[in-house]
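Below is how a single chain appears once it has passed through the pipeline. First comes the sequence as given, then the structure the pipeline wrote out for it. We keep one example in the README because the format questions we get most often are answered faster by looking than by reading.
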Amino acid sequence: MAAGDTTPGVRIDAETVKADGLFAALHAAGAGAYYGPVSGYTGDKPAVFFLKPNARDPDPPLSARSIQHVCSPPHTFTEEGDGTLTIAPSISDRKHDGHGGLLNESDGWHGYLERGVWREV
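Resulting structure:
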């Protein structure tokens, strides 16, 4: 993928997560799958969990294969009328270090989830 490229996302429903478990449901759906917002995984902050669009590329950085998440705040989640989700601001290509900073290693994908479509910047 490159800047401006888009990939359709797949929103996982609560029944699938209840039956299969969060991580199994996301891995089964594949790259671009997302679930949430949901509370209870990240304290009192709602979170959206996902596999980025490059998660199943032939040779992505190892961290790209992992299920990732963003919380609100600082992100905002908008439930769209068609059942898709929009997340703002952009989803970084770097993980937090747990102390307020970002790690240097990129996972190879930075962009947005807009109306259920992933757009790389």
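The CA atoms of residues 86 and 113 lie 5 Å apart.

See the next section for the split statistics.
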